[in-house]
Amino acid sequence: MTKMGYGIACALLLAAATSAQANDRKHMLPIKEALASAAADERLGDSVKFYFGNQPSPAVVKRMGMDQTSQKTNAFAKSDEKACNWVFLSALRQMEKRARELGANAVINIASNYKNVEVKSDTEFECHAGAIMAGVALKGEFVKVAE
After folding, report:
1. Does residue 15 carry a pLDDT above 50?
2. Any idea which fold 25-145 has?
3. Which residues pair with 145 in a beta bridge?
4. How far apart, in Å, do the first and last CA atoms of the chain sit?
């Protein structure tokens, strides 16, 4: 490839990356709908309970620390809602895995944490979707609650 051809190829790649980056749509989507989906039934177990925002939880018996996850998924040729719900479940799945590692049976005070900007809601999660990728970041406190 000539220097000129290489330069043109680099410019096109940079332009494509810039336009994909600029195509970042923020969505606040209902937690309840994502958790009521067949995908949630398939991907999440029932040994770890999730409590979002300020939702009340059973009495905390033991605190095991805070953690966060940031997940991305392919959004190409998918609606933003579909891609966002899928990646939200992926983030919860990671939290579920971490809870099991710690011996926790619940994650409380879950908040969206996209680019380290906390958004706390009892009913919605934040997702960012673009032309190629969708992402969700969550943080929460891992605990053992009374059963």
Report:
1. no
2. Translation Initiation Factor IF3 (3.30.110)
3. 60
4. 66
- pLDDT number for residue 8: 54
Q: What pLDDT, on a 0 to 100 scale, did the predictor assign at position 46?
A: 94
The residue extents of the domains of the chain are: 25-145
Any idea which residue has 């032309």 for tokens?
131
CA-wise closest residue to 93 among 53, 47, 134, 126 = 47
Placement of tokens 């990646």 in the chain: 87
